[in-house]
Amino acid sequence: MKTYEFTLILTADPNQEEADRLYSVFDDGTITTVDGVPQIHFHREAFSLESAIGSARYWSSER
After folding, report:
1. For the packed helices 16-25 and 49-61, what is the interaxial angle rounded to 10 degrees?
2. Tens digits of residue pLDDT in 23-44
3. How far, in Å, CA of 14 to CA of 22, rounded?
């Protein structure tokens, strides 16, 4: 597998409870806000970029 680096843009800044929940389901991403835009930056191992992004989107939507 290869490690892919990518960023998901969030529609809202997660509150503390949501951030804690997100961090409980992944350990390869960092929640940040850049220029007022909430996002999660990932370094994710996967067989393809598509599968890396797909799995990150799935877990991030579970918040």
Report:
1. 140
2. 998 999 999 999 999 999 999 9
3. 9
Give the DSSP per-residue string, 7-60: EEEPSS---HHHHHHHHHH-SSEEEEEETTEEEEEEEEEESSHHHHHHHHHHHH
pTM score of the predicted model: 0.82
Domain positions in the chain: 2-61
Distances (CA, A) of 14 to 3, 6, 20, 22, 50: 26, 19, 9, 9, 24
Q: Is the dihedral of CA 43, 12, 18, 58 positive or negative?
A: negative
